[in-house]
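Re-running MFS transporter to confirm reproducibility after the cluster update. Everything else is unchanged from the original entry.
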Amino acid sequence: MAVAAGLTVANIYYNQPMLERMHADVAGELVTYVPTATQIGYAIGLLFLVPLGDLVERRGLIVAQCLGLAVALAAVALAPTGALIVAASLLVGLMGAVAQQIIPLAANLAPPDKRGGIVGTVMAGLLCGILLSRTVAGVVAEHWGWRAMFWLAVPLALLTALLAALRLPRSAPERTGHSYMGLLRSLRGLWREFPQLRIATWIQSCQFAAFSVFWTVLSLRLEARFELGPQVAGLFGVLGVVGVLAAPIAGRVADAGGPRRVVAAAAVVTLASWVVFGLWASIAGLVVGVLLLDFAVQGSQVSNQSIIYALRPEARSRINTVYMTSMFVAGGLASAGATAAWHLYGWTGVSALGLAVSLAGLALQPLSLRSARRL
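Result of re-run:
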């Protein structure tokens, strides 16, 4: 499950270190919005496809989405214009949401006293996919061009489908009594019923927005300030793997009963990372900042998921839908805002945006701690 989650989610992030090369190859500014389109597509997939995990057998659903992902990746590789690349990237995001079918499956199969650690392990695989995807894409784009990366991703998606078909257990959904439309309608009820879900979603949306602001414009920053190409941008993903260490640790802390303290500490560290980005205008500053940012965001993610997965076991896919859809909408808006800030105000504007969303996440921490005391 960790391998499948990593291989599928990687497709959402290949474009980020290659963005400067894509922009140079395809006329017009529209192609710079490819990360935004991909994340919005991911949010749509979370909203309309992930709830199916509470209605149909999950293994078959995962295989089908992986096959659809292979088709979408080939469409990006073939697209001749910025508009078609953006449209195909939306489809990549839509089908790439399959990663979020895998995490609720892991939570369902795990014993309650080990759920945080097991979800943390699967999340570690997913995080490796997020971070190392940038490294692989940067190297491939540097030597063979950005389209080659998407062609390479096609057989990887097909391999993931085969891996899922052979290795994942069949998982019959819980009896919910809902039709598909009923499942979608129930999302609002879950949001209204659980204040813990609302607070965790708001906090992680701010965390992921801070994360997306940085990674969206990193390749543009490296090219403009340091004259460095996509290979170096991708190497920052290797640094970010330190965030993977946060996932199992945060999961074990969550199992011991203290996820909200991890979330609060992570919000402080995220803010500190953007202070570093804004004040330390060198490669060393970027390195230190990305280590802080990735560790904080991933630790917060696993801790918040341990909170929401305990709310209603038979509705985990839908709870994950509410949480992750909101998070990726925030990420998509943050990517768009970061791109606009870059074009208008450069790195200063990007840093100000990162600080603003980090402060918003920190300001929400008292709500989280109060909700813990009421339980």
